[in-house]
Amino acid sequence: MKKIILVDSSPRRKGNSSAIVDLLASDLAGEDVLAFHMRDHDCRPCLACAACQNRETQACVQKDDVAALLPAIEACDALVVASPIYNQQINSQAKLLIERLYPFFRIGRKNMSNTAKFGKKAALVCSCWGSPRDVTERYCAWTVEGLSQMGAEHFRSLVFDQIPEAGAVLGRADYLASLHELAAWLKADTQRRTQ
Ligand SMILES: Cc1cc2nc3c(=O)[nH]c(=O)nc-3n(C[C@H](O)[C@H](O)[C@H](O)COP(=O)(O)O)c2cc1C
After folding, report:
1. What is the CATH number of the domain that holds 122?
2. Which protein residues touch ligand 1 with a CB less than 6 Å away?
3. Which residue stretches of the chain have pLDDT < 70?
4. Can you give the pTM of this predicted structure?
C-alpha cells in the first residue's frame, strides 16, 4: 500500500484543485491516502528562524498543521500538489507549503536533503484560465522538481488550462484521462535510483 499525500491549495471549496484531489483519491482507493485541503487548516509561512537547520529530523518549531504534516511528508511515497495558477505561478498557499519543506534542507547531502527516504514521487497539477501553455508547462515542470528536497526523485506535472470556472475540470474528458494516468503512475512501483 502506497502512502500518498494529496494537497489542494485552492481557497475555492468546489474549485478545480479540490475536484482534482477528489478524483485522484477515488482512483487511489485501497492506497493509504491523505487529502489535505489547505483552506481547512492552519497553514503559516516559514519564519526563516532556521531552528530546523543542521538537524537530522524534519521538525519545525511552529505549532500549525503544516508542521504536523511534515512527518507524513517524510514517510510518504508520493506527494501531489493541486494548485490554481495565480498571476502566472502556483498560488501563495502552494508556495507556502513548499517553503515549509525547509526542515528537509541539508546542504552537502544528496539532493540537498536530510530525508531518510529517497525515491519518492512528486506531482504538480495546475489549473488555470489562459496563461500561455508552453511557458506554464515549463514553469510547472521546473517547480515540481523543487520537491526533491523532501526526497522526490520522480516527477510529473500537468497543466489544465481553459478551465476558469470552479469545477470545470470535470467537463474535460482529456484532463480526466490525464488524472487517471497520473493515479496509475502514483500506484506503480518505480525503480529506485542508485547514486
Ligand atoms: C487572483 C487570481 C489570479 C489568477 N491568475 C491567473 C493567471 O495568471 N493565469 C490564468 O490562466 N488564470 C489565472 N487565474 C484563474 C485561475 O487559475 C482559474 O480560475 C483556476 O481554475 C482556479 O483553480 P481552482 O478552481 O482550483 O481555484 C487567476 C485567478 C485568481 C483568483
Report:
1. 3.40.50.360
2. 10, 12, 15-17, 84-88, 127-131, 163-164, 166
3. 191-195
4. 0.96
